[in-house]
C-alpha cells in the first residue's frame, strides 16, 4: 500500500515539475522572440486614442493594424497571447492617464487581436 502511494506521489511530482519547466521555457522563449521582434506597432494600435473618424485617421489605423499583424505573425502562436497579456498588464499597472473608454477598448480589442489579424485563437485570455 505504501509503495502505491509513493508511486502516485512520485508521478504527481514529475508531472508538476514537467509542467513548471515547460511554462518557464515558454516564457523565456517568448521573451527572446519579443526582444528580436519588438511589438511597437501593436502597442501603438492598442494604445491609440479614439478620434473622429476621418479618412486620414481610418487609413492611419489600418496601417497600424497591418504593421501590428506583420509583427504578431513573426511570433510563435503561443507567444502572441503572452505578448498581448504582458502589454495589457503593463498598461493596467502603469496606465495613469488612460480614460475609462480607452481602457475599455483596450480590454475589448486586445484579446481578439490574433483573430483580427487572422493569426490564431479566437481569444487570448488576459
From TrEMBL:
GO terms for molecular function: nutrient reservoir activity. Keywords: Seed storage protein, Signal, Storage protein. Residues 1-23 form the signal peptide. It comes from the Eukaryota. InterPro entries: Bifun_inhib/LTP/seed_sf, Bifunc_inhib/LTP/seed_store, Napin/2SS/CON. Residues 42-121 form the Bifunctional inhibitor/plant lipid transfer protein/seed storage helical domain. PANTHER family: 2S SEED STORAGE PROTEIN 1-RELATED (PTHR35496), 2S SULFUR-RICH SEED STORAGE PROTEIN 2-LIKE (PTHR35496:SF4). Belongs to the 2S seed storage albumins family. This is Bifunctional inhibitor/plant lipid transfer protein/seed storage helical domain-containing protein.
